[in-house]
Amino acid sequence: MRNTERIQTLVNEGATTDRIKEAAVEEGMVTILAYSLQLVQEGYTTLEEVERVTFTDTGLEAELKAKRKSSLECQTCKAELQPEWMDCPYCLTPRFANN
Ligand SMILES: [Zn+2]
């Protein structure tokens, strides 16, 4: 993961975990928890901090919910779809048409 260099720099500079997390998100890191645990192992942060940042982060949670929601929305008519539906019952657009 070459993109972690920037994050590593922030860590070395003593940046706040919020700032580090922000950078991680910007770098498109999807395994923030895994990376955070690695930082714990290397002694850069504590489990307590990781827990605070990764499990109480409403921003990340909201982002995940938004992504989940968008995948359950008809791409054509924007109707709300049930997870088990493979296509939209309203306009018959396949759910995964443009994925
Ligand atoms: Zn539809």
What's the short version?
The chain is mainly alpha-helical. It has helices at 4-12, 17-26, 32-41, 47-55, 58-71.
Task: Describe the model.
The protein is mainly α and 99 residues long. The chain has a domain at 4-56. The chain has helices at 4-12, 17-26, 32-41, 47-55, 58-71. α1 runs antiparallel to α2. It is elongated, with a radius of gyration of 18 Å. The two termini are 25 Å apart. The structure holds zinc ion. Zinc ion binds at residues 74, 76-77, 79, 88, 90-91, 93. Residues 74, 76-77, 79, 88, 90-91, 93 line the site of zinc ion (ZN).
Key descriptive features of the protein:
mainly alpha; binds zinc ion
- Secondary-structure element string: HHHHH
How many helices in DSSP terms? 5
Radius of gyration: 18 Å
Q: Give the beta-strand count.
A: 0
Q: What structural class do you assign from the helix and strand content?
A: mainly alpha
Q: Report how far apart the termini are.
A: 25 Å
- Tell me the overall shape: elongated
As residue ranges, the low-confidence spans are: none
What share of residues are in beta strands? under 5%
List of distinct ligands in this structure: zinc ion
Mean pLDDT: 74
Question: Secondary structure elements and their pairing?
Answer:
Layout: H1 4-12, H2 17-26, H3 32-41, H4 47-55, H5 58-71
